[in-house]
Amino acid sequence: xxxxxxxxxxxxxxxxxxxxxxxDAEILVVDxxxxxxxxxxxxxxSTRKLRxxxxxxxxxxxxxxxxxxxPVPLTLDIDSVSATFKDNKLYVRHPKVxxxxxxxxxxxxxxxxxxxxxxxxxxxxxxxxxxxxxxxxRKHDARKKExxxxxxxxxxxxxxxxxxxxxxxxxxxxKEATGxxxxxxxxxxxxxxxxxxxxxxxxxxxxxxxxAVRASLVWNSxx
Length: 223
Hints:
Blueprint: E1 9-12, E2 16-22, E3 25-31, E4 40-44, E5 49-59, E6 62-71, E7 82-86, E8 89-95, H1 113-148, H2 157-222
């Protein structure tokens, strides 16, 4: 009853902490000499900090206390924290976050309409190329046969004779037409010459007749 109403004098205490590791959890060990379990409080804040609070009397109105906050790593689960107190040590166990392995599945390949069209087009192209290859093979075989036989484009002696006859016939026609033109030109020239001679002759006759008339007049006047 002597301690009732007496003011408490506190001495601050900073406990030693350390982490130990287990396969499935991380454990925070806090050394708290002289403390009892009922003198401790712990809580996890929304900011992922483990808050440790404790106080105990040391005699008379003197007390020792501590207030410590320890950050909790993101790899630990703060919703499943458990604590035990043994041999003046507080053990706070934090289970490790289990990584859920999502099976890696390949996304389904959605074929677009033009993909099918391109595929059909490719099949048609392959068929066309095959038929074209066969046609080219036939042409190649035909060329080989022509190369073995008479050379392509070469003319036989009969063809040469036919060509010579045709050429001679056209030459005769050309020569005949040219000769006719020359004859016509000569005839026209001769005609012109004859016409000129006739005109000259007429003029001479007219001149002679005129002179004769004048002479006769002169003779008549003299008489």
